[in-house]
Amino acid sequence: MQGQSQQQAYDRGITIFSPDGRLYQVEYAREAVKRGTASVGIRAEDGVVLAADKRARSPLMEPESIEKLHKADDHVGVASAGHVADARQLIDFARRQAQINQLRYGEPVGIETLTKNITDHIQQYTQVGGARPFGVALIVGGIENGEPRLFETDPSGTPYEWQALSIGSDRSDLRDYLEAEYEEGITTDEAVGLALDTLAQSNDGELSPDGVGVATITVDEPEYTERPADEIESILDERDLLATDEDETDDAESDE
Question: Pick the catalytic residue: 15, 37, 126, 244?
């Protein structure tokens, strides 16, 4: 019984390490991310692509209300997986940091700098009693000094830079697919197709234009742009990914 109570103490306290060096609450936050629908980020030769599975849990839900892709600044986009409310808090923080940098230094914030500011903020919530970690992971992508950059944030507060990655449900399978299919030097348009192919792997090979979101930021025009549904539908049709079944139900409880 004493061992069980000690286990519960490590389990409940965010500031207490277990004997084997683990913070259980951070690990539980990662599990919350896994329950969210997938998001994908791909770094191309001439830009960055963010794509997200945004299927509605009910046909009565307005697709526009499902927030998975966000504009953090003109040249920065963010995709999320996990608890939407936590993601909104971090997106608002990122937007404030981008504006502070612009006002203070008179230049757009760097992608790496912004990501590390976000992860520093996340990390504080793994060290303070009475708080809990953010149950969300983010993909931060954009253009920095004419170069595309792509980063991931983790609930522990650790930043990672990637060429291509996935977060959310089926992460391992989608990452394996990206490792097999990704090639350095691909164009942004090719990366859009690869991102949709990747998301389709966890959707029985089919996607609906209203159930997926795609945003791009290119080197030539470093402006965050979300692709319209009719363009996505055309790409899905070309790649034989267009869903024939209009059922958009989603069992993920942590994503909306």
Answer: 37
